[in-house]
Predict the 3D structure of the following.
Amino acid sequence: MIAGVRGDGIEPSHPDAAAARRAVARGPRRDKVIVEMRTYKTRPGMRSRFIEIFLSKAVPAHDEIGMKVLGPFLAVDDPDTFFFMRGFPDMASRDPMKAQFYEGELWKQELEQVVMPMLERYDVTLVEDPGGLIRWPDSRADAGARV
């Protein structure tokens, strides 16, 4: 066991630790936010360009659909890897929201043929945020800050 971390992986000193432990003990709930933990490995030297397109085109489109995005988080040990989280209100909304993006004109006519060749691989792990520990940005506030 890592010092300071319980066997359930929740740091006891975290302010939301008690709520997270209660949520873990209750088990999965259908109304909890569903999160994709996404790992991207770009072809050498392509990470910055991929992220530029991702932030300027894909994130606003995700926001319009109602998907939350947190990141990117850059790998410190690999200049071609980054991570981000994509959140959905619940499991039932995940597939329709993804379909709205990936079957939409922006993805089909513009992004798919540009960004997919930049990638070596990507992985997605689906998790739940049982204690509400993820603090999603308020895109409306962010948009106002950029104006």
Strands lie at 34-42, 68-74, 81-88, 119-128. The mean pLDDT is 80.
